[in-house]
């Protein structure tokens, strides 16, 4: 029987060069939620997503998508990396980029054909970029780049999506268009995780939140979780002991 | 036996090498790994010398294996240094490159002095490249490696493209990005090593970098880029060899490649220097013309709808500093049928009036927008509008127009288009 828990993280710790940046994260998110990943700079929001996607190694713990290890469930997962993570001068067209979303399903050696191209068209249509299909990606504005990345993730036809700062450098009109799209994805039963910065809009956009600051502060429905008390815990300064402990692990020196 | 003359063999060999280096090198350039090829080439010299000392022959295959081993050793050491010390990648590359090359030169002089088998003279050709002693088996090796690289790229085209563009996304889909990266760099390494006796360790990096960088000036499409880089590389190799009579071959090949690169920077469409200067100049002329038209419009505005002649004096007082500039502009505009000139009297033609109205309209729309929506001071908007209005794309202008119209800030549109007097569908253009 398929689990209705879209994402489950057990006791996960992530370290960069031995320096832990996320400690003992333990959470469950049910299917069909639009989830905001919230926390101050350096809280480990991006790291959380990358660890779930297997892009950074886990120091300990495990990640499950619909009750199975991530490695077996990749086909259920879509990813939108940060916009600045790629070279937008790269010689490809908008359609090329969106087609890359289908590569995972295509597997080795098979090239995208007509069904894939039609899917790419449809995904561009959904983000309102259909007329840009043949453009060079270098000609796009920030908001357009973001929408192209979103279309590429849609072309992955996943169940669970992870979006790293999809609203960074995006104008208000594009932001609300993206939010509408995400909400319609949720209505279609997808689970969508969004790294988000603007606390003003959290209640309006999301129905579930993960509050992070180097460790999990809280995870739950917005109404119960996005409280002043929890926000104080999330943003009220770093836990200096955690910070120092992390530094000590990097230096391999005891704290005392 | 191939039955080819030496010079034909060398030309074919250099062209094959150039083509393979161009295709493989394009990935290195796109992945910003150009210098790794350079390091690999320099670092291969010790391996070449040691392989020669062991085998005692100049056989390309044996020496290439030696070169590959010491090149890979340098890459491995470089990676370790970056991983475990504070040294950054560019510094580590420089250190490995010069360290291994220094060792190579020392070994070379040792091997040459002890003169094993008497055939070591050819070894020094590894420094600057000297294809003069190419034998048939060398050519076969080049053909093999060239075809191998092309096959690799054809086979993994989609995968290489994905990994080159977005490493992390590829990894999230479960592609073995490390192995794919390694495959790309292996292609670069193989080509580099095979090219050493022709171009030499010092200049081999140019063969890797130049074709891709040159091709990039001409195209924005990935597949075209790869093909073009291969063609440019092959041309570079063949032409360079043909030019090399009496000159060292490696440098003439590299100079040919550099000449193609310079020509491309200058003359490529869109991205070339000439095209950019030309577009910039045309824009300046257009801006100057639009300013002239707007001046004529504004000077005539009180008397509308009558269009009176304007004198040069009035125009000079209104905007222009240099009379010769104004004279020239007016001549240009007259040639385009925008103004009529009689003596020092300038009058807008009907066409000129329409263009002048458009320019003025754009200018004022932008001014209104900046003042009312962006809160600019009235005495500043004129200048900012001057800078921006000529660059606004038409689509943005329409948006601006719609916005101002919505807010009731736009007078009824002067240039209303009447409905078509005939049936549009009957024009036969069914699109």
UniProtKB/TrEMBL annotation, chain A:
Residues 7-239 form the ABC transporter domain. PANTHER family: IRON TRANSPORT SYSTEM ATP-BINDING PROTEIN HI_0361-RELATED, METAL TRANSPORT SYSTEM ATP-BINDING PROTEIN TM_0124-RELATED. Keywords: ATP-binding, Hydrolase, Nucleotide-binding, Transport. It is an enzyme of class 3 (hydrolase). The keyword Transport applies. InterPro entries: AAA+_ATPase, ABC_transporter-like_ATP-bd, ABC_transporter-like_CS, Metal_Ion_Import_ABC, P-loop_NTPase. It comes from Lacipirellula limnantheis. This is High-affinity zinc uptake system ATP-binding protein ZnuC. The lineage of its organism: Bacteria, Pseudomonadati, Planctomycetota, Planctomycetia, Pirellulales. Belongs to the ABC transporter superfamily. Its EC number is 3.6.3.-.
UniProtKB/TrEMBL annotation, chain B:
The keyword Transmembrane helix applies. Keywords: Cell membrane, Membrane, Transmembrane, Transmembrane helix, Transport. It is found in: Cell membrane. GO terms for biological process: cellular response to iron ion; response to zinc ion; transmembrane transport. GO terms for molecular function: protein dimerization activity; transition metal ion binding. The chain crosses the membrane at residues 12-30, 35-54, 60-84, 91-111, 139-157, 178-210, 222-241, 253-269. The keyword Cytoplasm does not apply. Gene3D superfamilies: ABC transporter involved in vitamin B12 uptake, BtuC (1.10.3470.10), Winged helix-like DNA-binding domain superfamily/Winged helix DNA-binding domain (1.10.10.10). One of its GO terms (cellular component) is ATP-binding cassette (ABC) transporter complex. Residues 349-405 form the Iron dependent repressor metal binding and dimerisation domain. SUPFAM superfamilies: ABC transporter involved in vitamin B12 uptake, BtuC, Iron-dependent repressor protein, dimerization domain. Belongs to the ABC-3 integral membrane protein family. This is Manganese transport system membrane protein MntB. It comes from Lacipirellula limnantheis.
